User: Fold this.
Amino acid sequence: MPLVAGNWKMNLGPTEARDFAASMLSDLVTVRGVEIVLCPPAISLPAVHAVLSGTNIKLGAQNMYYEEKGAFTGEISPTMLQGLCDYVIVGHSERRTYFGETDDLVNRKALAAFEHDIRPIVCVGEHLEDRDANRTERVITSQVYGSLKGLPNARLDELVVAYEPVWAIGTGRAATPSDAADVAGLIRALLVELYGAVEAATVRVLYGGSVTTANAGSFAAIPDIDGSLVGGASLKPDFTEIARQTLRAKNA
Assistant:
C-alpha cells in the first residue's frame, strides 16, 4: 500500500496540534488505499494520538534515541513511544546536518525501533555540493549501507526508506521525477544487494523534498516510489489532496 507521511517538524504545540489534526480528520479518513501517517513534535504526540484513536490514520514520531532509559537528557526512548506511535522518522537530513547524526547512529535507532515494534522511516539524501560534484550515487550508497545494515529480514516489509535530497528540503526546489526515479532505483538495487530481491521488493521507498499538490502525483507515478514524506505542505489542508493524488497515480 502506498504511504504518505506528514512531518510537522518543530511546529504546533499540543493544543494547536490537536486542533489541526481534528480539522483535517474528516477528510483524511476518506482516503482509502493509502496509509497516512502524521508526525507531530514529541510534546504533541499524546494529543494527536487521542484525535486519531480508532481511525485509519497512523501516528509517527520525528525522532528517537536507541537506549531504553538512562542519563540522556532531552532524548526520547523507544519504550516511551511504544504503544503510542506506529512509526518513527530516523536519520532525517536536519538531524544529520544540525545535530551530527551519523549512519551508525541512524542504524542503531532503526534497530531499536524494530525491537520495540515501531516501524522506522529511514531518511537518506545528498547535499547540493554532492549532486553538483556527481557524488549522489556514492553518498546514497554509503548512507543506505550504513543506516540499514543488520535489519531483521523477516520484518523488512515494515521498513520505509525516504529519499530526501537535502537541496530540495524546504527550498521549493523539488527534484525532477527523473532524478527521483534514478535514486529510488538505486536504493532498491542496494536493498537487493543487502537483503535479496524478495525482501527488497517489500520495502516502501518514499520521495521527500518540497512535495506539493503540483508534483506529488508525478513522484507517486514512478514504479520504485511508493509515496511521499511531506514537510511544509503537511501543515496545510493540501496534505489530504497529496494523499489523493498518490492514490490516483498508483491506481492509474
Observations:
- The two ends are 14 Å apart (CA to CA).
- The chain is about 40% helix and 15% strand.
- The mean pLDDT is 95.
